Amino acid sequence: MTFIFALLVLAPLAYAQEALLTSGADIKTTNGSVSFSVGQMDYVMISTNAGSISQGVQHPYEIYISPSTDDMAFSNLKCTVYPNPTTNFLTLAVENINIKGLSYQLTDSRGRLLRDAPILDAKTTLAMQYYTSAVYFLQVNEKNKVIQTFKIIKH
Q1: Which of 78, 86, 119, 143 has the fewest Cβ atoms nearer than 10 Å?
Q2: Rounded CA gap, 66 and 85, in Å?
Q3: Half-sphere exposure of 59 toward its Cβ, with a 13 Å CA cutoff?
Q4: 127 has a pLDDT exceeding 90
């Protein structure tokens, strides 16, 4: 009887992460894995002078590729993408490298190329308002070599 009473009184106090998503999957290959969800309706972004954090059902993250010895020229490269998740516009900021020869590719979660353009300035703005709410990938390339890849969530 005490167990049932405790269950009825304490159960509403327990919280868990919950969301209704339209789609999602885990993709694993020999090069790594990606976990994504589509249709996330609720997230909170908190920003301060020290940085920002995005809280939600599934957090966006950057995909890191271990550099080889040929990639040491990019060891000081700093690429950032914000805001992520985004709704209308996405900014790609590139620092500590000569941008000549750099480009970016935007692909959907199925790998279809949506946009391929050179990086002409230290800050590049991508219009995202015409794309549907989904997960996208933004690759920064030097000639035909991938330097960095970002997972983008579009609401």
Answers
A1: 143
A2: 25
A3: 8
A4: yes
Measured distance CA(91)–CA(75) in Å, rounded: 21
Nearest to residue 77, comparing CAs of 145, 127, 153? 145
Write out pLDDT tens, residues 56-81. Answer: 555 445 555 555 545 555 556 788 89
CB atoms within 10 A of CB 80: 14
Which residue is listed with tokens 């339209």?
Answer: 22
Residue type, 29: T
134, pLDDT greater than 90: yes
